[in-house]
């Protein structure tokens, strides 16, 4: 077994409670979750998820402009109607 050390971190009390509850539902504890996170950092060579200030890509200005332009084209009758077909397996 590898040598282990204790790591102390400071986190918001409510965040810790919520995290422990979710982890418990998954059959994990905080130590296991942190070890998984650290192993993924090493495996991927960085944080294993995107860190961003955006809340949702769907609502970014470029996507919203494309959506509004598409809606305008449809309202002007410039869209193509496709029939939804289902395939029985």
3D architecture notes:
The structure is a single chain. By secondary structure, the chain is mainly α. It has one domain (13-75). 48% of the residues lie in helices and 0% in strands. It has helices at residues 13-25, 30-44, 61-75. The protein is elongated and about 65 Å long. The mean pLDDT is 90.
Spell out the key features of this protein:
89 residues, 3 helices, mainly alpha, 48% helix, single chain
In short:
By secondary structure, the chain is an all-alpha fold. The chain has helices at 13-25, 30-44, 61-75.
Structural domains: how many: 1
Proportion of residues in helical segments? 40-55%
Q: How can the largest sheet be summarized? A: none
Output the number of helix runs: 3
General shape: elongated
Name the poorly predicted regions: none
Strand content: under 5%
Structural class: mainly alpha
Q: How confident overall, as mean pLDDT?
A: 90
Q: Based on DSSP secondary structure assignment, what is the total number of beta strands?
A: 0
Order of helices and strands: HHH
Radius of gyration: 23 Å
Distance between the terminal alpha carbons, to the nearest Å? 50 Å
Note the topology:
Layout: H1 13-25, H2 30-44, H3 61-75
């Amino acid at each position: 077994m590898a040598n282990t050390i204790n790591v102390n971190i400071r986190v918001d009390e409510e965040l810790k409670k919520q995290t422990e509850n979710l982890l418990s539902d998954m059959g994990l504890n905080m130590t296991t979750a942190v070890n998984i996170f650290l192993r993924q950092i090493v495996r991927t060579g960085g944080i294993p998820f995107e860190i961003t200030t955006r809340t949702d890509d769907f609502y970014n200005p470029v996507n919203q402009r494309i959506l509004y332009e598409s809606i305008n084209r449809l309202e002007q009758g410039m869209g193509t109607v496709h029939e939804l077909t289902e395939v029985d397996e």
